[in-house]
Amino acid sequence: MRRRGLWTGLVIALAALALAPGCALKPDFRAEARGYLEHTESLARSYTYSESTRAQQREVDVKIADDLTYAADYTLNGSPDMSEIVKDDSRAVRIVDPSLLRGLIAPAAAPAPASPAASPAPGGGSVSFQPGAPSAPAAAAAAPPGDVLAALRGGQWVLDPSGASSLVRAKQSGTQTQIGQDPIADSLDVLNYFDQNLDAVTSDAVVKFNPEAGGYFKDLDPFPWPAAGVTRYDVNASPQLPAPGALQNAGDARGLLNNTLPTYFKTDAIYVRNGVVIDVRESIDVKRRLELPDQNLMALVENALTLLNPGLHFQASVSSLPLAEQERFLVGVLNAYYAQGGNSLLRERQLNVTFAFGPPAAITVPPTDQRGSLRSVFDRGQILGGPTL
After folding, report:
1. pLDDT, tens digit, for every residue of 18-39?
2. How far, in Å, CA of 356 to CA of 353, rounded?
3. Which of 162, 208, 235, 279 is the most buried (most CB within 10 A)?
């Protein structure tokens, strides 16, 4: 997370100046949106981080008083899973679902992941893109002390008097881990996550919502229209892809697969009222992009993969499948490629976060006799356990 104080006001003032009559500057809506995100990060707030994937509904109820005073309650498919409270130097954790503790086993006991190299190919054979050696899986954290682990397995609160972590270090600035690996970390970092998404697109890909603009398709808009007095900033709402024939070599193919497509499937909306972000939304949806006119996504992906593996071709019947089946096909093929290269997988989701503001929430550390080190318990980026897709 970044704190820039006066920078927020300066950005907003410059944006207003750019709109003044006779001014030649083009409005920079990316800078405007960033200024509002950073200002909102400095405020006490509460919100529910609500994420829907094909198989799961995740919610994290969050209360933030300041960077060292916050609480989060994580629920999976309606069942409480985990709670965390940080106040001053202390960190308290309670595990409701014991299956989450699978992430705390010793590295030697962790099963080896299946190799993605034998994934079925769409035209027969196997997928083998050879984009580089797969990244080694991260080693599991060393197990916490026995009494701490026993207390967590029993659903008790465990307090680490010196285990607090500031929100400004929840995730390293300028990097993004695989979303979904740690829902509590994702929820605490959500404003910074949207800030980083702004860095992943060009400034002209951030616009103010305008249903009259060319390229806007109401039926393909995944987000609600803004209410009166609310400004909606759309991020990557109408991306363009190169024509399939524009890819000439393996370098072009990797650029498309590794850099362009992860952003192409994603669109964000940032809602602002009176200089404060009141709602953020994200849609990562392959099917919606397949529905865009004049962009032959299936042919483009086939061309890219064929450049990396000349023996690979999609069956002709793939393009005639219903869109939902084309979506599943593309996600499977792309994730086989990403897994083999050690890259983050394509993970479709719908995210909604609505913020409330007011006096800082009263956050207290729960009374408990169970004390010990929580250093290895769900460190930021550690997989919580269970499927993430």
Report:
1. 444 544 567 899 999 999 999 9
2. 10
3. 235
